[in-house]
Amino acid sequence: MNDDVRRGFTDRLRGAQEMNALSKVRPASREFRRLVRDVERWEGANGATRWSREVRVRALVGEAACAYALTGSVDAGRDVLATAQAAAGPLDGRLRGLVHGQHGVLLLRSGDSKAAVRPLTVALDLADPADHRDLTVLSLNRGSALVDLGVMDAALADYERALEHARLLDNDYYVSFAMHNIGYMHHVRGDMPAALKYFDDSVTYLPEGPDGVALVGRARVLYEVGLLSEAEVALEEAASLLAGDGLAQERAEALLDRARCLVGLRRYDDSRALAGQARRLYVRAGNTTWGLYARVVELEAMLAADRTEQVSRTRVSRRIDLALEVAREGDARGAVARFGVSVPARLQAAEWSILAGRLDHAQDVLAEIRRLPEWAPFPVRVQHQVVRAQLAFARGDRRNGVRAVRHGQRAIAEHRARLGSVDAVTATAVHGVRLGNLDVDAALGTGRPADVFDAVERGRATFAGSGRVRPPADPELAALLTAARREVEAARDIGSDGEGAAQLRRQQHLREARRLQDDARRRSWRHEGEAGTPTPTTTRELRSALADSGSGAVVADLVLSGGDVMAVRVSRDGSRLLRLAPLGDVAERVRRARADFAVLANALIPVPMRTAAVSSLQRSLTWLDDALVAPLAADGDLHIAARNLLLAVPWASLPSRKGRRTWANSWVDLQQGLPVRRQGEALVVAGPGLRFAAAEAKLVAGVWEDAHLISGEGATCSAAVERLPDAGVVHLAAHGTHDIDNPLFSSLRLADGPLFAHELDGIDLRGVVVVLSACEVGLSTPRIGGESLGLTSVLLRLGARAVIASVGPLRDDVAARVMPALHAELRDGAMPGTALARAVADEPEPVPLVCFGPLVV
């Protein structure tokens, strides 16, 4: 009979514990109280036993946790623990350990991590080695306290011990939680791919899918990678999942991290409101330390807004005082709050002092920040260098300003070195925006062309290149991309002309394709990096290279300043800084040119309309030529380094560039003494749906002695990708699509569906010349940090010697005429830009093909 009663009480205890673990705090609290009452009644009638006392103590410990969660009062939890301590008695070390452990948890939840370590350590020492549940929970909690104290190795050891015991316990929830915390440790150490892998794997152990805590952890990694929009969406979902009873602190974390993302997304008012909401939740829960963290994010939102507008000295003075007050409160929390409160708040105070012109005060505040260790949070290290650079430049100390910029960019380069996918590498640029802008603005202030060029290229090189040099073996990623391709093709087969049910099915296929693409993106973020950060080219190196090679080329490094397009013109004879044209006017002419190219791409339009479009296009191209190229005085080769909209200019079509080598890139990637192209076969691929694609491909293949032609049903994505590593020249004649919203899913349509840019990530294309005979695949989409992404940019990041692609609609018959001539020039040894200039020289209408690639001299 006693065994049945014991099993019944034990089952009820476990049920209440599981409810509490799943954040069902209110029903768990009710069950813990009922259980204590029922055990006491049973003991009153039958006498206390060892097992009944243990059930009662564990129920009281659980009720203490619930009392704190529901009231936010540490004292409420301690009152219950006092009853538990009395019930445990002085001789039962294991039960006393349970009470010590819960006391440590209460201290941890209240923000007093330093005080929490001792009772948690006592509890671990007293725990039964065979009690895997207690050892799991205690190890998780002490690990969290050690993280707050910055004792990372010991914290990771605790989390790994927790994972071991959770697996022995066969408890999926605890396994998930331990994996989540190990992922967080990798995040703290800067290994973002490993962190994402652990976070993703932890979710597989949750029967109901991702919970709010899992989403918060994953979003923090995405934030540090620079994927702010993705992190913000995840945190919005997390906050809604964490809206239940007893989840105030977890919800506050989601709100606070979302507020941090919104600062980066320039939604300052929303950020400040969310951070304030998080702060109030923390304060109500008695966790004043995390309340200070939230206050820091509020200050960051205020500071970010103040950077964009003129603010009064009075307001700035108040904000300096407020930031320093928060910093001093952080000091009182010791090491726990140093990198989350004390250092960031002082950096904010220093920057406000710079905005107010109080440079000596800013220097004094910065002097209070000791040198930051390498393991300090990555965003804080970068912010530190930003403020140091800002102060140095404001003082006219260019040398120390540039030194701080380089320190910051070195930290960013080390951070991105662990990232494997092009998607993640380019996203990281968001953390370098302010550093690069400070550098360029200070250089523009000197008026010296060399300073401007060097500053621009320092920033651009930090995020250039690929994240790795070989493709990962990831069957799951390949399967996701294949499935996405099938969904796109299924939607294409239905077409857009049908009605009713057919269109509903088409939309379902497209939605599923997007879901699979999003899953593939997330999967790619888990890949680790291997490639280093490129070394930026300096003006001195560039001029020397041009002189040594005897090149008369002009290099134009374009940059935006005050709404105008500026250029640093560099040749072997010297460098000049030029102001070219208002960006708004350039954007309007580029838009008009693309619209006219779209008209001309239609072979069926009436002659009068074609004549009008040609005339309009020539006016736009002439304006662009006069505004952007004529001031450069480039009589020979011209290399353009530019970003964003300026990469969409049809440079090779401009009147003055007819018959002359012209090529562009997003940075000055100087390469000397290398062959024109990699040795290897010519890979020629013809996709479906183009009238002249097969004939064009056959003519191109006929130009080369060693050519591999893939067409018809054999022109599949896998067939093309498999041959890429062996190719020296690649020609792809296919329908092209630039995906503005998701540029890594820009694609070329082959026999079995779209070949996505994502599928090329990691392939070694060093030295390969790639010709894309397709519409608009030369376009790219700028990310928040300024990096551009698209099919062409991915190919260049993988090492392509040149990519010849169209920045506008390209008519099939024009491509069929131009492409064989282009390849004949390449075969005979012409540089890609020269080959393109010669191939289009006799065309009666402008052709929107552009040669993209590094600067080869």
Report on the structure:
The chain folds into 7 domains: 2-221, Serine Threonine Protein Phosphatase 5, Tetratricopeptide repeat (Alpha Horseshoe); 222-308; 310-371; 377-467, no CATH class; 479-524; 539-663; 671-856, Rossmann fold (3-Layer(aba) Sandwich), CATH 3.40.50.1460. 61% of the residues lie in helices and 10% in strands. It is built from 33 helices and 18 strands. The strands form 5 sheets. A 6-stranded mixed beta sheet has the order 8-7-9-13-16-17, with helices on both faces. The protein has a 5-stranded mixed beta sheet with strand order 3-2-1-4-5. Helix 29 links the parallel strand 7 (681-686) and strand 8 (707-710). Helix 22 (433-446) packs antiparallel against helix 23 (449-462). The protein starts with a helix and ends with a strand.
Quickly describe the structure.
This protein is of the alpha/beta class and 857 residues long.
Structural class: alpha/beta
Q: Examine the secondary-structure arrangement and name the CATH architecture of the largest domain.
A: Alpha Horseshoe
Overall strand count: 18
What's the pLDDT, averaged over the residues?
88
User: How many structural domains can be distinguished in the coordinates?
Assistant: 7
- In CATH terms, the superfamily of the largest domain is Tetratricopeptide repeat domain
Distance from N terminus to C terminus (CA atoms, Å) equals 92 Å
CATH class of the largest domain: Mainly Alpha
CATH topology of the largest domain: Serine Threonine Protein Phosphatase 5, Tetratricopeptide repeat
Low-confidence stretches: none
Helix content: 55-70%
Shape, principal axes of CA atoms: globular
> Rg, please?
31 Å
